[in-house]
């Protein structure tokens, strides 16, 4: 009896070892292992190589687990069934007692294997995968060497099945942006990152999808000079509209010939020198980019020409806005931008927001916790969304209801949507189709 119990314990321990070896290798993070390998841990380097070609490793695991399971069933049935049958023989007929003894022996052995060779080892392997993978790497290497003929046979059979089914047996180690964002979200939930820091990282990845129109200053907000503006006009405009950079145009805003830096203007004013935009040494060459570029592409153009200011034009070569490096970085920094910056989204209460019409649609989606808005490929801002939904230029009090929210136009300035009231409606069971209401005003 004692020998059988010891043998069962040894089989359970062997099965638990193979379970730990299997789950720890699968759950080990390559970044953590690579750091350990760079610090000189040869075991980490061995585990990394095994992860790249895990076929032989898992073959040994499966051979060991299946062999142990079969032996456990044989030993357990022979060790425990007679004792249970003898016990039940006090109350049951011999045949019935033998059947009951077999069932009880089966349940006890199965329960011991499930608990101590499967559940506990695998949970332990998931909790500390890298540490355990390092510990079992050398014993598993020894098992692979001892079982080399069997490993070769079963591995070749498995490879043949993969080729027959047209599948790849190699592990895909590519790290995508979604993987990184998921890690950042997990870090935020764990308290390792602030929510604002997570948002900054998310905004960085959005630079590849957000167009320059989501960060630029709109055409009607551009302060510019004409090439023939006299000195007194320039000084008055600088005082009235203080910016760091001003486009210089020939005749109108759609004929930009360059830009002038406010520092150069201030230097001339402080030195009591006249200001003339006919001076080519004062007017710099301007970077002109199309409005379909993404923010990451604009950053690349800034880097190539060593500039931090650009004029944005549409397909008809009409100026639609200007963008600076600071505008792009403000998009990245989000809520970390200083409080002096103008807020485009102001929350009034738990169920309503005041939103500027030029607010990028990505910021609106994030604020309202929406996945998408209809026809999102046709616009970049909240104003564009309303125009697409209403199929005309919105007027004050026009509204659109979609996704559990009501978007109501509060103020329009010369066809430009200044303010939109967004309020939460009564939640519905499903996503209702969008509705639009157009109420013209006198």
From TrEMBL:
Q: Which residues cross the membrane?
A: 6-27, 57-80, 100-120
CDD domains recorded for this chain? Answer: CBS_pair_CorC_HlyC_assoc (cd04590)
Indicate whether Signal appears among the record's keywords: no
Q: Which organism is it from?
A: Simplicispira metamorpha
Mind telling me what this protein is named?
Polyamine export protein
Coarsely, its chief localization is: membrane
- Write out the function statement from the record: Involved in cadaverine and putrescine tolerance in stationary phase. May facilitate the efflux of both cadaverine and putrescine from the cytoplasm, reducing potentially toxic levels under certain stress conditions.
The UniProt entry, under InterPro entries, shows: CBS_dom, CBS_dom_sf, CNNM, FAD-bd_PCMH-like_sf, FAD-bd_PCMH_sub2, Ion_transp-like_CBS, Transptr-assoc_dom
Where does it sit, as one GO cellular component term?
A: plasma membrane
Source domain of life is: Bacteria
- Localized where? Cell inner membrane
Classify the protein's membrane topology as the record does: Multi-pass membrane protein
